């Protein structure tokens, strides 16, 4: 392939005939090392948890809608349901 008008380019055959060395035993990988302090790890954890908290909604609207629908049903609020709810609230506070 020859291009004379733009710039002189020699044949690509010269580049394709280059012999490659398969001798990789002379190449040795260096041993890189990185040390991360405990303080940096804690800061990274706090940063990640902050991002997760920011992305998580405070209120799960779908659950609120489900509960609103259940409460409208007169058969839902009975002594058993109220007792179970009270027990869950007491357990949540360790009482």
Core attributes:
single chain, 95 residues, mainly alpha, 51% helix
Low-confidence stretches: none
Rounded to an integer, what's the Rg over CA atoms? 35 Å
Helix- and strand-based class?
mainly alpha
Strand content: under 5%
Approximate helicity band: 40-55%
N- to C-terminal separation? 87 Å
How many DSSP E strands?
Answer: 0
Per the principal axes of the C-alpha atoms, what is the gross shape? elongated
Mean pLDDT over the full residue set: 78
The largest β sheet comes out as: none
Topology as H/E string? Answer: HHHH
Count of runs of 4 or more consecutive helical residues = 4
Description:
The protein is mostly helical and 95 residues long. Helix content is 51%, strand content 0%. It is elongated, with a radius of gyration of 35 Å.
Q: Outline of this structure?
A:
By secondary structure, this protein is mainly α. It has helices spanning 13-16, 38-55, 61-72, 79-92. The chain is elongated.
